[in-house]
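FORM 7B: Structural annotation worksheet

SECTION A. Query
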Amino acid sequence: MQRMPVRLVLTVMTTAMMIVIFCLSMEPAEKSDETSGILSRKVISVVYPEYERYPIEKQQSLYEHVQHLVRKSAHFTEYMTLGILLRLCTESWIGKKKGVTWISWGIGALYAATDELHQLAIDGRSGQWTDVLLDSSGVLTGVLISTGVLFLVRRRQKRRNLAEWG
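SECTION B. Predicted structure
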């Protein structure tokens, strides 16, 4: 994984993911709510087909609950993706060193913290320490997934090489 084209592609992909996260965090609260609201309504239509027949108070409560889950799931997923990319990118630059997994997670956790600080400057948005924990957990999950996949791929390659020589 040490070849320059791989490094560059992984660096561009990782940077692009960070830019996507940054841009989503720049959305004012109203626009962010609108974006997550579209998916929330789709989830509700599938999971709660009788939703339109519920009393208005129950609809509102259910909508807020589903929207909260959608938003938190989106946070986790985008940071999990970042974690996968960070792990691959970091290793492409520094090699298979012992600390590469934790360095990758540290970079992602730091990015999550700065992203929440950045949101303090956006209309209607707030920086939440709980979101830093959620995002950092997403990064850790992504880092561990990519570490596990790399381990399995390398083990399989090693077995193939041994079989060819044996």
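SECTION C. Observations
Residues 56-94 form the longest helix (39 residues). The chain is about 85% helix and 0% strand.

SECTION D. Sign-off
Analyst initials: ____
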